[in-house]
Write a structure and sequence with these properties.
It is a single chain. It is built from 2 helices and 11 strands, in the order βββββαβββββαβ. By secondary structure, it is mostly beta strands. It has a single domain, classed as Alpha-Beta Complex (Nucleoside Triphosphate Pyrophosphohydrolase). The longest helix has 13 residues.
Length: 161
């Protein structure tokens, strides 16, 4: 299956699914290239956003450990990368851990695929929710959104240069 994304000489687009996994007052974030984001990945053609999350967590953590819950956020993200404009649509679901024996609950751990060579490592961090306002995370209003998470779906737009 191929990802639902493209990149041309002029612009790019991606369709992404991300998971909101909260445990003991902390949220799981990934860091790559100095930026925090919610774990997930590109949606493949013919795949639901829930299926994307199960696949991505299995690839990255090495176990099928999550249950995908309800849709919470829809983020339209406009940004620049490699000197060209990108448009990303990201769908966020609440996640629940089915099993905590296969995921490190310490402050940080490394992406399964990079255990031997962490030059391009994706690190995972358990960040206390009340500390999100002190770090650079995408989406930038994540702390506020997590404080108001309820039965509704939040839609928001962010334009970054």
């Amino acid at each position: 299956m191929s990802d639902i994304s493209y990149s041309t000489d002029k612009n790019g687009f991606s369709y992404r699914s991300a998971g909101i996994l909260v445990h003991d007052g902390r949220v799981l974030l990934q860091m790559h290239d100095g930026e925090y984001a919610f774990p997930g990945g590109s949606v493949a053609f013919g795949e639901t956003t829930a299926e994307t999350l199960i696949r991505e967590f299995t690839e990255e953590i090495g176990e099928d450990i999550i249950e995908v819950g309800e849709l919470k956020w829809v983020w339209e993200n406009f940004y620049s990368w490699n000197n060209k404009p990108y448009h990303q649509i990201c769908i966020y679901h609440l996640l629940k851990l089915r099993d905590t024996t296969h995921i490190p609950l310490s402050d940080k751990f490394i992406h399964k695929e990079y255990l031997e060579d962490d030059g391009n490592a994706v690190w995972f961090y358990w960040i206390p929710i009340d500390e999100l306002e002190n770090i650079s995370v995408h989406p930038s209003n994540a702390g506020e959104l997590l404080q108001q998470i309820d039965g509704t779906v939040q839609h928001f737009i962010e334009r970054r240069k």
